[in-house]
Structures are given as C-alpha cells and as structure tokens.
Design a protein that fits this description.
single chain; 395 residues; alpha/beta; FAD/NAD(P)-binding domain; D-Amino Acid Oxidase, Chain A, domain 2; nine-stranded mixed sheet; 19 strands; globular
C-alpha cells in the first residue's frame, strides 16, 4: 500500500504530532489532527497491513453487547453515531467509497437452547432500550433466504452497520496524502524522553522525530515500546483472529449474519461487490500471525451451518491479525501518566467501530459528551496499580 510522502531515514525533523501506528486508529487520529491544522507525521513500516487488514469491519455495538460490558456499549454507540458523517467526509476527501452499509445484523439460533439464550440476550437489549426486533425462523429466512432451514428464530439489530476496513485505510492514506501529511515507512524503537516528558520518537532506520505530542496507536505492539517506565506502558496483549474472504454475487446476503455454532460465535459480513467475510477466531497465541488449516476449517464449518450455500463460493483471501486486548476489554484512549504521550490502543474487537470516536477523543475540543466517554477509557485507570506493582525501573 502506498504511503504518502514516505521516507525511510528522515534524520531529525519536528511535527506538532507523531502518530506511531498506521492502522485505522492511528490514521484516523492523524487525519483528524491534520484537519485541525496540525502538522502530523505517521510512522509505520506498512500502514494498513496489520489488524486493520484482517478485520471484518462490523460496526455492531448492539449485536455484540454482553452483560458485563455496558461501558463498552456506550463507547460503541457513541462512535456508531459518528460513522455516517465520518464515512461521508472521508469518502468525499479521498475519492474512495468505504462501502458503509447500514442494513443491520441478524443473529440467529438453531435449537431450543440457543433460542432461549438468544431470547435472554434480547431481553437484556430491550432493558437497555436498544433497537432490536425478535423474529421467528420463518421471518429470519424471509429476511435472508440463504439461511439454513433449521434456523429456529433470531433477533435483528437494525441499527448495526459495517464498512470495508481495507477501503477505510486506503481512503485515510489518500486523504492524508492530499493534506500533505508526512509518513515514515519505519519502525519506532523507542521514545525520546527529556525531563520526564516525551519529546519524540527514535526510528529503527536511524534518526529521530521531535513532536509536541506522541500518539501511541501501535495496536498489539503498543506495550513493548522502549523508553517508558513499566507503569506507563499500556497493558495490551495480542489476541489472534483469522478470517476468510469468499467471492460471490452481489446480494448473496443483505445483512450481517451471526450465530453461535458449536459453542463459537460465527459471522458472515457481505460487501457491496459480493464478497463475504467469514470470521472470526479468538486465540491467545502471542504474536503468532500464521493462518492455520484448523482455523480455516472451523470458519467454513461454522459458516456452512448458518448459510449452507457459502461452500459454493470462491475463496478469495485468508488473513490473520492481532487485536490489542486489555485486562477489562475497554480501550486506552487519552493522555498517559507521562507528559507528551497520548495512548490510542487496546481496542480489541472494536478498532474499526471506535476509530471516529477515538479520533475525536484524541484531537477534539472538550465537551460534556466527550468528557464522560473519555473517563471510561482513560489510560490512567491502570496506572496506580501498575506503579505499585513495578520496581520503578525503566525499560
């Protein structure tokens, strides 16, 4: 993927902001900052090639709600509301359609136990005043004729949406290029720290980039950056996910389709060009990014239970990515415990969903709405516990 104004060895330069990481989060922050008139440099060896490349792009805070993650739901709903304007603005500025689709998510059940469990989830959603509709098996198949005949019922989350993350990253890179944003195709090896304040970054290829603010948006790699005290490093871990992309005819599916199959959550996400994305595994395998035969078999097996006709489609692509997980599943967005360093990481499954909100939290003007949301994902919530547990030594 082309990088705007890419350089490999910039020597020493200065920007208002350096963004470490070129996924949807880092690129969104950089784009918003550039629109606010700031000089920005993005540093990433391969923008858009990490977790964003392997993401399905679901904007589904309602259908993914769980009993213990109501704060994450609040963040997701706030960001979902920002997506129509974000997508329209980005498409206009870049000239690239991000395939923003708003037909909703259909979550289906196959047996009495699954249906009962799905009914409990629907009841929880209704208590939260979320827009959901309970459907019979016949109504589910009327909405999606390709569904398996054994579907017993389901719920429709009509407010859910999705985009194509690969188009989003391409659009962000194009928009950044049009605004003259500098990008460095290199890896950050550490931070420049002076008097306890972060003043820039050091590059693997040599040289440094000075900045008034450094935004750490390196996903699963955010917790391994040199130059920070252990208690300041974000507590993120890699969570592996594998997906498969199939090529079919446009209109094969109209909704994002989800279900619990063999105890695992499976989903199918349709694109406007007929592509179907199958996902997604969740594996605690460290920094392993191999695509495995077993995972692909499970994806096809589970997807076939939901939509039998997918086995007739052509395999277009397979990919694995590393989501940045946190101990409480909430992202880390906002000022860190060290002056000059802002975090924008730890989004786990919600990186694509949360990129408009993250960009606003990092670059926007304070408002009552943003202030309340910022408190939910402040990096400082882990700082005191990590400080007490650390030796005080710097990495």
């Amino acid at each position: 993927m082309d990088v705007p104004h890419a350089t490999a060895h910039p020597g020493t330069r200065h920007s208002d902001m350096v963004v470490v990481g070129g996924g949807v989060i880092g690129l969104s922050v950089a784009w918003r900052a550039a629109r606010h008139g700031r000089t920005v440099t993005v540093v990433d060896p391969a923008p858009g090639a990490g977790a964003s490349h392997a993401a399905a792009g679901m904007l589904a805070p309602v259908s993914e709600v769980t009993y213990t993650e109501e704060p994450l739901l609040r963040l997701g709903l706030a960001s979902l509301a920002r997506w129509p304007h974000f997508a329209a603005e980005l498409s206009e500025e870049s000239g690239i359609d991000v395939d923003h689709r708003t037909q909703g998510t259909l979550d289906v059940a196959f047996d009495a136990d699954d249906l009962a469990a799905l009914g409990e989830v629907a009841g929880f959603m209704e208590k939260l005043s979320l827009p959901v509709e309970r459907l019979t098996g016949r109504e589910c198949r009327r909405a999606e004729p390709m569904l398996a005949p054994s579907v017993r019922g389901g719920i429709l989350a009509s407010g859910d949406a999705w985009v194509d993350p690969r188009r989003v990253t391409a659009a962000l890179l194009a928009a950044l290029a049009r605004r003259g944003v500098a990008a460095v195709a290199d890896r950050v090896t550490g931070l420049v720290v002076e008097g306890g304040t972060v003043r820039g970054v050091r590059l693997a290829g040599g040289g440094t980039i000075g900045a008034e603010r450094v935004v750490l948006a390196a996903g699963a790699w955010s917790g391994s950056l040199d130059g920070l005290p252990p208690e300041v490093l974000p507590p993120v871990r890699p969570v592996k996910g594998q997906i498969m992309r199939l090529r079919g005819a446009p209109g094969f599916l109209g909704h994002c389709v989800r279900g619990v199959v063999h105890g695992s959550h499976a989903y199918l996400v349709p694109r406007g060009d007929g592509e179907i994305v199958l996902g997604a595994t969740q594996e605690e395998m460290g920094f392993d990014t191999r695509v495995t035969a077993g995972a692909l078999w499970e994806l096809l097996r589970d997807a076939r239970e939901l939509v039998p006709g997918i086995t007739e489609l052509e395999v277009a692509d397979v990919a694995a990515g590393l989501r940045p997980g946190t101990p409480d599943n909430l992202p880390l967005i906002g000022p860190s415990a060290m002056d000059g360093l802002v975090l924008a990481t730890g989004h786990h499954r919600g990186g694509v969903l949360l990129c408009p909100l993250t960009a606003d939290l990092v670059t926007g003007e304070p408002s009552p709405d943003l202030a309340a949301l910022a408190a939910l994902c402040s990096p400082l919530r882990f700082h005191e516990a990590r400080r007490q547990g650390s030796t005080g030594s710097h990495r």
